[in-house]
Amino acid sequence: MPNEEWPAKAEGLARELHQLISINDKNWHKQKNNPEKRAAELLSAAIVQLICRGNQKDVEALLEQSLKWLKREIKDPGCPHR
Fold it and tell me: What is the pTM for the complete model shown?
């Protein structure tokens, strides 16, 4: 059921933005420690959750993680070694 509080195209555009700026398996090693990229990815995920009536705690967690990246309080832990 569409969320009628948002324009009809909002969900699709939010999802498209998130897909465009998300780090994928092709650029993971190059982008994984870019704080602005990681923050933007998390913010766009939060927007998608808001528009799709996601869980408020999930939205808050995404926003908090985004802020931590922007403040350089966290870094990617890297790939686990075997």
Answer: 0.85
